[in-house]
Amino acid sequence: MRLRNVRGSKEALEASAYVIKNPMEYKGRWSELFGNSYPLSVEIGMGKGKFITSLAKQHLERNYIGIEKFSSALIYGLRKQEELALLNLFFLREDAENLTEFFAEGEVEQIYLNFSDPWPKERHAKRRLTSKKYFERYAQVLAPNGRLEFKTDNRSLFEFSLKEAELAGWDVVNYTFDLHHSKMAEGNIMTEYEEKFSAEGNPICKMVARQKGNT
Ligand code: SAM
Question: What string of DSSP letters covers 158-187?
Answer without folding.
Answer: HHHHHHHHHHTTEEEEEEES-GGGSGGGTT
